[in-house]
Amino acid sequence: MDQNVTLNNGITMPVLGFGVFQIPDDQTQAAVEAALQAGYRHLDTASAYGNEEAVGAAIAASGIARDDLFVTTKLWIQHAPTGSVEDDTMRAFDASLRRLGLDQLDLYLIHQPLGDYYSEWRAMQRLYADGRTRAIGVSNFHPDRLVDLIEHNEITPAVNQIETHPFHQRLTDQELMRERGVQLESWGPFAEGRNNLFTDPVLTAIAEAHGKSVAQVVLRWLVQRDVVVIPKSVRPERMAQNLDIFDFALTDAQLQQIATLDTGESQFFDHRDPAMVSALGGRRID
Ligand code: NDP
């Protein structure tokens, strides 16, 4: 199967990448170096993860040609200390790029659908028009906010990165995104192991039938749905295992079995929960 997806502006993105959320800063360089060694060419970080510099150091140490890599980072909620969210977005972008040691980004995402993200988006449209990032997108946008952003701006986000795994499958969200030309990218493909994902009996039986692991079945299920995935691991053997999903396919019957696992709810929190909106909104970065 094709190991790339084409975004709404025509650029391609590897369907499988490596996420670095919650890897401690002092372990990130080694983890990313190991991931690049294993064969990952798509990296997902964020200013909020505090490890962009370590990701950049690993990229520099790898010697891999820049054109062979796809690098995503994310803008945290801006609070306009200068009085202009647009100006601060430009500054935050420059700071991320500096930390990553890059002169162009592949994908820049609004991390949270909170605060004055319309001003953030206007700045990101400028960054895109100026060629400073090859694509722009959003993360954690529920369908109503996504459609509103699309309706009132020039550029439709290329990607919406949202929690997507067997217990929160986002099928109707994906349908809407498909109609609107927005690529679904999964975060937390394993739900970080919550709800006993790695020992789930349905997933385990399917894994045994293919001689694969539960993790591989979950990643295969997502890419078969045309969902971009960015699993995280600090262990080289799991990094390699998570890449090795292109030599088998789930049957329709197996897809139907996995469909029964959907709870329609987050395993983490809802971005529409007022307490969470307040907690996230209070965090200051850049
Ligand atoms: P994941 O669902 O990818 O789960 C990671 C966990 O699974 C780790 O504990 C890891 O352990 C374990 N694991 C990885 N591979 C295997 C395997 N083959 N077998 C068994 N266990 C395994 O969680 P994340 O939250 O990290 O999501 C992935 C990425 O998505 C993030 O790194 C980040 O880039 C992005 N993200 C974005 C968010 C957003 O708001 N936009 C929010 C959350 C994540 P170990 O490391 O010990 O192997």
Descriptive account of the structure:
The protein has a single domain, classed as NADP-dependent oxidoreductase domain (TIM Barrel, Alpha-Beta Barrel). The chain starts with a strand and ends in a 5-residue tail after the last helix. It is globular. The chain is α/β, with parallel strands linked by helices and 286 residues long. Strands 3-4-5-6-7-8-9-10 form an eight-stranded parallel sheet. The chain has a two-stranded antiparallel sheet with strand order 1-2. α1 packs parallel to α2 (52-62), α2 packs across α3 (85-100) and α7 (201-210) packs across α8 (214-224). 41% of the residues lie in helices and 13% in strands. The mean pLDDT is 97.
Which labels suit this protein?
alpha/beta, two-stranded antiparallel ribbon, 41% helix, 11 helices, binds NADPH dihydro-nicotinamide-adenine-dinucleotide phosphate, TIM Barrel, 286 residues, eight-stranded parallel sheet, 10 strands
Low-confidence stretches: none
Total beta strands? 10
The structure class reads alpha/beta
Percent of sequence in beta strands: 5-15%
- Known CATH architecture: Alpha-Beta Barrel
Report the C-alpha radius of gyration, rounded. 18 Å
Largest sheet entry: 8 strands, parallel
Mean of the pLDDT scores? 97
Q: CATH first level: which class?
A: Alpha Beta
What is the CATH homology-level superfamily? NADP-dependent oxidoreductase domain
